[in-house]
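Q: I'm writing a short explainer about IS3 family transposase for a general audience and would like to include a description of its predicted shape. Could you first generate the structure from this sequence?
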Amino acid sequence: MHVNDKRVLRICRKYDIKSNIKWKLKSCTRGDRNPDHIAKNYLHREFHAEKPNEKWLTDVSEFKYYNGIEVHKVYLSAILDLYDRRIVSFKISDHNDNPLVMDTFDEAVRQEPDAHPLVHSDRGFQYTSAQFYTRLKKHHMKQSMSRVAHCIDNGPMEGFWGIVA
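A: Of course. Here's the predicted structure. Afterward I'll give you a sentence or two in plain language.
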């Protein structure tokens, strides 16, 4: 399933789901204090891909919505292909946890079974987990991570969140 960012934006607007990424003072992920795996930054802000499924970016963003005066949070995990900026897969959950990211990744693999991209993320706890690293290795994918406190290393993904908000 391929989903255009405009469709995600339309759905978020329909259900009054808003990202707080624009409102946070710190939008960079600090990372897990005890990571299982840290990868080098192989992407080096080279945000151009020559072909589909060459470079994928991934991230999770928090959105708040209101039910009356009660505030709720949902988390959107997405994988973006740098070739055409399409969303390869996405999942929404009430919890920001490993299953959210693993389900997003598994869906991307189902959609693109022959893909072996460089997968770039921030250093969030899900992406530094042994579980995520093992999944990447199983599918012969190379992992790349942003440097600490350098959100721009994952710039197009952060830009996508700005569009969705």
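A: For your explainer, you could say: The helical segments are 5-14, 98-111, 130-138, 155-164.
Q: Perfect, that's easy to follow.
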